[in-house]
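User: Here's a structure from my thesis project, written as structure tokens. My advisor, Dr. K., wants to see whether a designed sequence matches the one we expressed. Can you design one independently, without my sequence as a hint?
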């Protein structure tokens, strides 16, 4: 099979969907790998690294036209939609619940779209999604600390003096954020519909009234609740946000599934925040893209076994 690796074009998306090492493994298995020039640069991989592994460097059009399977990180961007054709396999994060037009286009053109987030093991876990979710949770805690500072527009407090609310705390994103924040922060409210023993006495069952009370006293809110079939639930209303302390911070990690707050809308790494109801909102859908040298390897370690199976004609779903 001919496997194509285009360069990511989403704003400041530094990850690449295949490393030279794994490209070499595919080639030794009898497949051909085409890599767009510069695709791995921000992740620390040179064109020479790919060619030394046996891959061919070419331009974006040749990658898309010649490849039978495209492996990406993020969903095909608008400028790439014209390149989607019947029979091509595209393996990437798609987030179809909030990308309905892309879903309809893939269906209409006969594109075999395989979302990373749909890969699920027998125990219900999603290994590819989990790898990126752990990184997103870590970034969320860092971002919260950054924007609480006065010079960054925040209320002007350290985490040790702050109260945080994590909504979706028992999931991978929320738990990683909790692990980082718990030793550093004054108080944490950890909301979810299921408990996790590691949340201890901080755990709260997610109810609208309890979330509203917690937000009224919170300087940092991390949104990590998702429903993979329908998108993120809107658990935070505009009224709840309006009652938060002025210049507090919402980091809506679930924005790639629509966001948990009525006041959330997607932003970019180039322009990551805005204020609504006098609250700072950070709503970047591709948070792990900011640390590509950390996140690319973690991503490809999980995706490669499936890439190889697809290339070999094996079923993965």
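Assistant: Designed independently from the structure alone:
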């Amino acid at each position: 099979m001919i496997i194509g690796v285009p360069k990511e074009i989403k704003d400041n998306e530094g990850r690449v969907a295949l490393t030279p090492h794994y490209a070499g493994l595919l080639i030794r298995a009898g497949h051909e790998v085409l890599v767009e020039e510069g695709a791995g640069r921000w992740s620390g991989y040179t064109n020479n690294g790919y060619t030394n592994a046996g891959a061919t460097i070419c331009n974006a059009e040749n990658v898309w036209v010649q490849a039978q399977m495209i492996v990406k990180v993020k969903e095909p961007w608008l400028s790439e939609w014209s390149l989607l054709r019947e029979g091509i396999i595209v393996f990437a994060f798609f987030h179809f619940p909030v990308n309905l037009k892309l879903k309809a286009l893939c269906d209409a053109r006969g594109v075999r779209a395989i979302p990373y987030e749909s890969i699920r093991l027998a125990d219900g876990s999603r290994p590819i999604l989990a790898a990126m979710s752990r990184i997103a949770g870590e970034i969320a805690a860092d971002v919260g600390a950054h924007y609480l500072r006065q010079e960054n527009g925040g209320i002007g407090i350290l985490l040790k003096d702050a109260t945080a609310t994590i909504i979706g705390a028992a999931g991978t994103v929320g738990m990683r954020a909790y692990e980082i924040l718990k030793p550093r922060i004054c108080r944490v409210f950890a909301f979810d519909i299921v408990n996790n023993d590691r949340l201890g006495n901080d755990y709260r069952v997610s109810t609208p009234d309890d979330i509203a009370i917690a937000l009224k006293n919170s300087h940092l809110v991390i949104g990590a609740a998702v429903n993979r079939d329908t998108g993120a639930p809107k658990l935070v209303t505009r009224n709840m946000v309006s009652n938060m302390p002025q210049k507090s911070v919402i980091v809506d990690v679930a924005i790639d599934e629509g966001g948990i707050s009525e006041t959330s809308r997607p932003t970019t790494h180039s322009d990551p925040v805005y204020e609504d109801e006098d609250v700072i909102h950070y709503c970047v859908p591709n948070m792990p893209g900011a640390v590509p040298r950390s996140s690319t390897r973690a991503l490809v370690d999980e995706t490669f076994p499936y890439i190889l199976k697809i290339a070999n004609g094996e079923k993965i779903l």
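When you compare it with your expressed construct, this may help: Residues 141 and 181 are 6 Å apart (CA to CA).
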